[in-house]
Structures are given as C-alpha cells and as structure tokens.
Amino acid sequence: MNRIPATFYVNGVRRDLLVDANALLFEVLSDDLGVSGVHKNCDRGDCGVCTVLLDDEPVLSCLMLALEARDRQITTIEGLAKGQKLHPLQRHFVEEGAIQCGYCTPAMILTAKALLNACPHPSAEDVKEGLSGTLCRCTGYNKIITAVLAAAKESE
Amino acid sequence: MLETLNVVGARMPLPEAYEKATGRATYCSTMRLPGMLVGKVLRSPHPHARVAKVDYSKAESLPGVAAVVSGQDVKSKVYTKNVMTYQLPGGEIQDMTLFGDRVRYKGDEVAAVAAVDEPTARRALSLIEVEYEVLPAVFTVDDAIAEDAPVIHDFAPDNTPVSAVPTFCYGDAAKAFEESAVVAGGWYTTSKQIQAGMESAACVADYQHGKLTVWSQSQLPHMAKRMLAHVLDLPEADVRVIQPYAGAGFGAGCDLNAEPIAAVLAMKAGAPVQVWYSRDEDFNNRLTREHVAKVHMRVGLAADGTPKALEAHYWGDAGSYMCKTASGCGVALASNITPYEWEAMDQKLSATYTNHVGGGAMRGFGGMQSSFVRETIVDEAIAQLGMDPIEWRMKHHRNVGGLGWFPSARITSCALEECLTIGAERIGWKEKWNKPQSGTKRRGVGVACMAWLSGAQPMLLEHSNATLKFNADGSATLLVSPGRVGQGVEGALAQIAAEVLTIPYERINVIAGDTDITGFDIGTHASRGVYCIGKAVLAAATEAKEQFLQRAAEKLGLSNDTLVLEDGVISSTADQNCFVTLEEIALGLIYGFEHDCNQIVAHATVEPEDFAPPWQAGFAEVEVDIETGVVEVVKWITVHDIGRAINPSTVEGQLEGATCQGMGFALFEDPVISLSDGYMLTDGFDKYKIMSSVDLPDHEAILVEMGDPSGPFGAKSVGEAGLFLQAPAIANAIYDAVGIRLRDLPMTPERVLAAIQAKEAGV
Question: pLDDT tens digit string along A65-118?
C-alpha cells in the first residue's frame, strides 16, 4: 500500500503522518492518533456516531478518506474542554442528565456545537432538526434537547 | 408524602458523565492495548449443516496472522451464551458447543483468526477451507413443528423442547369462562426487536501467566466469568472480567458475544485480541429480544366487569439456540399475574427451535408480550361491556398483599390509582375518549397499565454484595458490580450511601466493573439495580454507620444510643458540644498512634425477598390517517409509580429513552428474517429504523412517589418499566379513533390500513 505524507490539525495541534491512500479519517484518528473519543458504529452513514468537525462542519469520519481532511482543522470531543473547564455544551449535557451510555455523546455534542455556530438561538424544533443525523438509543432525546437549549441560552 | 431527604431525591450529575462528555470514557470498542490483534469470526454461509472438515493451514501461513482457531483447538464443552442459566437451581437449557461440528443458522461460528490488522484478518478468513454437508432448514415455528421438519438439536426431535408447559395456573378457568358475560381473545404476534445500542458487540481478551482477562460489555460480569471458565475449561480463579463502559445494554449484555472466541484466540496468539462486530454482523449474530412469536389469549369478564379468567399460551421462536426464549415466555406469563384480580388463570408456554439467530433478552423481557396482548384484550372486553377503561382498571387491579408476579410473591406497594388519575387529567381523557370521529384523520386516546418487578426474586437468584471502605478523610470507596450500560445506577447507589452516612455525594467514590475487585453480584437485569444492589449498599452503609457510632462512643465515653449522626458529625443528644467528626474517627483508625488502627470497612450481602412492583399507566393520543394507515402519536404520557426516585433526573431519562424504544416496538421496529435462509434482511439502521430526534412525538414522564416499605428509602425500579405500554395504549387509542383491533406488532401503516379496509368491507 502506498503511504502518503499528510498533515492534519487535530484540536489545533499539527500532526504529520504517513497514511494509506484508502485510510478512513476514523481509522487515522482512532488507530494512528489514539483519539479515543471518536466512536464508530454503522460504517455507512446511518447513525452519525462517528461525527467530528472538519473546519467546524460536522462530517462522518467513518465515510471520509483521511486524505480529504489533509491540511484542515479537525475537532474531536477532546478539543472542547479547556483543561478541567468543560465547554458549556459538555457541562449542560452532564448536568441535564443528557448522557446515558455515552457512545453517541461526542457526536451529539460536536453536532450541537456546529448547530449553535450556524444558529445561535435555536428553537426546540431547530435542535431536533439539527441533531437528527445522530442516533441515540438511550435518552429519548428530551434531555439532550434541553441541554443544547440551555447551552444556547447561556451564550446569549 | 415521603419525608424530604438530603442527598436521596436530588438531581445529582453522574460521575461517569464527565468521562463520557470529554471522550475519556473507555469502551470495549475504543480499547487499544499494546500489541493488540484484530479478531474476526468465520461464519457459516448455510442455515443448517454439518461441518465435515476445517482446514486453516493456508490462513495460518499468511503473513500477519497470529492465530487461527476452530473446533480442533477447543475442548468440546456444552455451554450457553445465556449466563443467566446460573440464576435458576436447575439452570436453563445449554445447547451450544464452541466451533461445534454442526451449524444451525447462517452466521453460526465455525472458526476465527487474529491478525495484525483488519484487512489481513479478512484475507485470512477467506483462506480457511471448510467442507459442509448441507442439511434442510426451517425458519418459522409452524414449519419447525411440521411432521417432516428437519431436527435442529438431536435432543429435541420435535424441535420443541418446551411444549405447552402449564405455568402459574390457579382456580378453575373453564368454570370462570362459563360464568363470564363477555369473552375476548385471539392470536397475537410480536416482533423480535433488536436492542440496537450504538456500540456493536465488542470485547477484548488477554492471557498472561495462566490468567485470562476479558474486557466485556456483559451486564452480568460475575456470571460471565463463570461461564467463560466453564467453556474454556479454566479454573474460575484464573478468569477476570473487566467491564469498561458499554455502548448501551438493553439486555444485549445479558449474553456473551465473542468473549469465548477472543479468549481462545488470545491464548493461542499470546497477545491481546479485540473482536468488534460490524453493524450488520451485530444485527445478524447478537442474540435478539426474546422472541415470543405468537400468543393465544382469552379473557372473560362478568357482567359487572369482575375479572373472571385469563387463559394464555405463549409460544417462543427460539431460533438456533434456546438461550432465553423459554424463560422469556415464562416471565411473560408471570407478569400477567400481577395487574388484575383474576378468579382463575390458566397459562402455558412452548418454545421451538428454528434456523435463525437465537433470542436473548431485551429490556422489558417477557413483559412486552404480556402487556401488549393482555392490555388490548382487556380493553376489548371492557368495550364490549360499555365501561370506561380507566374506571375498570381503577377498580380491578390487585393491591398491597395481593398475588405478585410469581406465586409466592406478594405486592408490597401500589400507586396505580394515582398514576391513572394524574395521566387521565393530563391527557384530557374526559374530553377526548370515546368521541365520534370523522374526516380522513381521526383522533383517539388509549390507556394501558402494568406492574413489573424490582429484581426477579424469588424466581431467580438475585444475590448482591456491597463494600464500603473509608479513607483517612472520612470519604469512602463503594465497591459494587452492576452492569455499566449507561443506566446511571452507580450514581444512585452513591446517593444511598451518602444519605445514610450524612456526607456529600461527592465523598462516595464508586468502583465497579472488575470481578477481581468487586464482591459477587448477579449484575444488571430485571430492573434490579437500585432495589437489589441498593439494599446491599443501604445495609453496608448502615453497618459502617454503626462502626463509626461505636468508635465515637468509645472516644467520647458515651453509649451508642445517646449519639446522633448529622452532617458527618456524631454528637451527644444531651450535649451538642460533645462531638466528633467522621473524618476524625476515620483518620484515627488509619493514622492513629495508639495501637488500635482498624480501617472502617463495611460489607453487606442481600438476597431480597420482595419483588416490589412498580406500577404504571401509559396514555397515548394518536391521529390515524384512514387513507394511508399512518399512525401519528400526538402525545405520550408515562406515569410511573417509582416508590421513591433516588435521582429523579436519571429516572426520567430511563423512562424517556424507553418511550422511544416502546414506540419502535409498537409502530416500526420490524426485523425481517429471510424465509429462504433465515438471514436477517434488516441488518442496518437504513433498514431497521429506530427513532431519531425528528421522529420524536411530544412525550413526558411523570413520577409518583409514595414509597415502598421494602425498597431502599422506598425506591422501586425503573430500568425496564418505560417501554411496556406504548404498544397496547397506542393500539387502544387506534381503536378509539377508528374502531379497529390490531393483533400484530409492529402496527405498520400497511397493517393499519388493511384493518381499516377490512372493517369497512365488513369482514
């Protein structure tokens, strides 16, 4: 396999790697860079659990070639907290009880972050629409929606 | 009203939520151990065959392959992935052999490889040569019980090892039916729902110096350890099961997945091995919901509504291995007992083998199939008498002291009437029920009720242990062993301990998830966590408190009974200035210089006697499009008799999440099994729909807290309770809207429309 030199900016840190031409972004993040907060489930774009942000836009890391993310800013869940200080979305997810098994949580929080960038004052319907690409089997979504609305309110 | 407490009843954030929110939480699928290999399973392409020969020499010589295993590498031990077999004195049917010489569904395990990466592992699988002698196969119960059906397991020549076994019968049902004014009943079918947590089945195994460590998603780690020791022929002392967080359980963690295979690979390779199913592999090979394929039920009511008789036959489609199919039917029958005062009950169960993936357990085990059938038939009979379904339920439910889910169990508390009253008000029952509808979109409301359990005692062994050990600063470590499936029970257990010890929640550090560290526990199933493990924690904390009081009495020169513990301070009831803090006592017992060091460690074992049923009323308002058959749920309300909510936020979360799963079971979650090879055609979320945020109806969960005398601080269970009533209440609401009775789940638009058309045609 031809390995190609590539530079990624993961949570603001430059990483220079040799990657397989057919390596997926998920594989590079999780296997080469040891990013444990990126999860994977369906491998075909149904569940959204592998979502990371690429230049602040949500992308499915299990369906994207790593080389497509070359020279771009990748944000994973590890990039949100500042030391021990949680991002408001993380804090509200914790406080509202919006996390159960937690497997979808990184994707949910990152998707919510992109949503709030695009739409800082969302309605509950906006949040439902904005998060609809990520499945959660545990929570029934109510507390997730409440947490996102609370985080939006806080930034007002 | 219950008295207000300090920590119990507060909406505390879960410690584990911080790890999960920051991406720091470890799951079996995110583990990356040094030198870890990728394990892959070779699966049968045939639904039924003899495995004549396996030759893996070519696969073994592929560069990058560390180990290949098949039947020749393991001792031929009969076992079951259903580790709950240890909870019954006689056990449940064990009918599996690891890499045996017979495969019984398309996907059955034949061999496995461990290699440096996934592409190499996949190439190695393709190099394994297997000779099969293909056998005829059957995919439905009706085909499997036909006279000339192929025999799937030799010990069950009619494929039905459990055949019409009478279960939990009492009274003279025939006479009670004769005395009934109305009798309603018929055949029902229910779905083989998929647990569908967001993490596929995954595990890691490592074997070093004669000791096996398995990282597992098991909800029942101590029994998983015992079964692994059995199937691998190792001493139990040499097996350790560690549970990282699991990407949900919902019963999927009640059975082993690839743990035995990962272990055999790790032992042969001398390196850690991870087996992580792809999503379609998970759909096709992870044991599904206990599949009660068909149910026949009749109920009889007297002219004044008195419940006379309930007669039922639950028939399970076990698939290729029995696992929990028969016990699922048994729990369905047991859970039919609690809700109403039948004069007589006559129930039986059967379970039949077929050639598709077996039935394990899913949240609402057996209770889904009892609630849907019973609550819709009862609704039908009530309607024939022209009575209000809420009033009938108010009048005829069982009550405290009455028969429980299992013949020797008695009801310890019941707040069903409060649940019904609150829900009826909230949904607007009086204004909306039984109102004539016209137009193409018709609205209706429906209600259903249930009583569940808080642990499966006394039918099953429900043994729990809890240990508290105190640090020098008066904080404590709490050792317990629930499943770690996101249900939030560890936080609730910390709240119970903190309440007893009058110290802050944050001062209890819960350690779980390692069979080498924690005491024995059955684990998480049957909605038992807060009740059963909570009782052990309550007992351990009470014992610790006694030890502190004893020490304080010695230190203060007073007797125990003149002391009181408040806010972490033990003081004399006579003189408030005479006191000592828990911290001072704990410090002195660890870093004391009076030659009396004795760290406070308190341990408790419990086997609860009562089953403490939580009661519940569910209310649905629906809109049925009579031109398309589409049912829209306009509003859903769960009113749950929790006894006491240790953490109301967690309880609501359990109920809200379950609502979505219950809606799926009711309306659209529909595993489709091929009738040509038994393969599950719905093998991904593109084909097997689960609820997303935009599909969400307006739904809410309301808690009723009146306490249960047997529960820790009055608590009863919630884990499974939230998903029983969507199917029956929606079915009853559809009847209220358009006058049709549906007997098959899920209630898809096709089925609804067909029933509407049949009604219009007068069929």
Answer: 999 999 999 999 999 999 999 999 999 999 999 999 999 999 999 999 999 999
The residue behind tokens 């967080």 is B245
The token pair at B59 is: 């696969």
The amino acid at residue B601 is: V
* CATH 3.40.718.10 fits domain A88-154: no
Amino acid at B677: D
Query: B659 at the A interface (CB within 8 A)?
Result: yes
User: What was the ipTM of the complex prediction?
Assistant: 0.98
Which residues of chain B does CATH 3.90.1170.50 include?
A: 31-135+195-285
State the pLDDT at residue A1. Answer: 61
What's A72's DSSP letter? S
Whether B36 and chain A come into contact, CB under 8 Å, resolves to no
Residue among B11, B21, B279 whose CB faces A90 most closely: B21
Kindly state the tokens that stand for B613.
Answer: 């049923």
For B271-280, write each residue's pLDDT tens digit: 999 999 999 9
- The tally of CA atoms less than 13 A away on the side-chain side of residue A65 is 9
Rounded to whole angstroms, the Cα distance separating A115 from A124 reads 12
Residue among A51, A85, A111, A138 with most chain B CBs within 10 A, to mutate: A138
Report chain A residues whose CB lies below 8 A from the CB of B245: 101-102
Output the six-digit token pair for B1: 């009203």
Fold of B292-457+610-760: Aldehyde Oxidoreductase; domain 4 (3.30.365)
Mean per-residue pLDDT over chain B, rounded: 97
| Helix H or strand E encompassing B70 | strand B65-70
CA distance B398 to B395: 9
Give the pLDDT mean for B275-291: 97
Kindly identify which residue of chain B lies nearest to residue A137, measuring between CA atoms. B197
CATH of B15-23+463-606, picked from 3.30.70.260, 3.30.365.10, 1.10.1740.10, 1.10.10.10, is: 3.30.365.10
Could you give the CA distance from residue B80 to residue B262 in angstroms, rounded to a whole number?
16
Question: Which residue spans of chain A are classified as CATH 3.10.20.30?
Answer: 3-79
Residues of B with a catalytic annotation lie at 720
CATH architecture under which domain B31-135+195-285 falls: Alpha-Beta Complex (3.90)
Q: Which of B653, B693, B699 has the CB atom closest to A131's CB atom?
A: B693
Residue A14: other Cβ atoms inside 10 A: 9
DSSP-derived secondary structure letter, B4: P
- Angle separating helix axes B15-22 and B489-501, nearest 10 degrees: 140
Q: How is residue A139 written in tokens? A: 């929570």
Question: Apex CA B205: angle with CA B204 and CA B206, to 5°?
Answer: 130
Where in the sequence of chain B do the CATH 3.30.365.10 domains occur? Answer: 15-23+463-606, 292-457+610-760
Look up the CATH number of domain A3-79: 3.10.20.30
Distance CA B22, CA A155 (A): 20
**Mean pLDDT throughout B293-299?**
97
Do B692 and A127 lie within an 8 Å CB cutoff?
A: no
